[in-house]
Design brief:
globular; 2 domains; alpha/beta; Rossmann fold; 7-stranded mixed sheet; 7-stranded antiparallel sheet; Elongation Factor Tu (Ef-tu), domain 3; 16 strands
Amino acid sequence: MSEAPFGRRLLEVTGNDELGAYRVLRVLDPQMCGPRGATPEPGQFAMIAAAEHWGGGEQQRPYLPRAFSIARLAGEECHFLLEDVGPGTRRLCELRAGDRLWVLGPLGRGFQLGGREPDQRRALLVGGGVGIAPLAILQDTLDRDTTVLLGFRDRARAAGAALLRDAHVASDDGSVGHHGLVTELLAAELERDPHAVVYACGPAAMLEGVRAICEQRATPAQLALEAGMACGFGACFGCVVARRDGGYLRVCVDGPVVDAAELEHVDAHAGAPA
């Protein structure tokens, strides 16, 4: 597991690119992305917050740092996938080149990619909405061909599929690709060939569907959970989810990526926006 550089870092935004309904925020971060950096594992995240104009005024709460999966590394840049879903994320979506950003990370546990045995299972990457972010860096990292299945609400959000290569797309409204749920694409793939390993991130309902489908077929799966985090390093216990055999795990330190077999179900608060 890659360990975070000690303390948060004040970094420069190098760009903020439109991708359909989303934004790709690019940040110069040689401590995390350079040749001697921490090199985040796919599935790890960072806590980020705008350095200026980070609150609404004396009578309003400040915008707390948000946990975002690391979507891609490009040279000394780190990329994050954003969606404007409220005041805090709106402020991040407003950042432009030259603005500054507080970053703490990489944090958490990423995807476990396994060995290189001859009968290595094929990789199925399953994502929904803004939850596709960690699958992009995962696809960049895997040393074998992958099948990518992505689900979105509508055409504007489906433009985010461009973040990955050769994606098969499902849309709720039928405007792009398969008319229906991405879990329907997953079920068809596993019906064709169940000898696979599934890596998934997305809304809680999607992740629960992935978990149940994989459990039924005895297909191993790893789920990147995105429960709301206040601290990012296990101190506040605000992101706990129930384990199958009792007790709880803290998504920020025991995850965000967990083996699907650890969960009896995916809690409703433990997914990314659709």
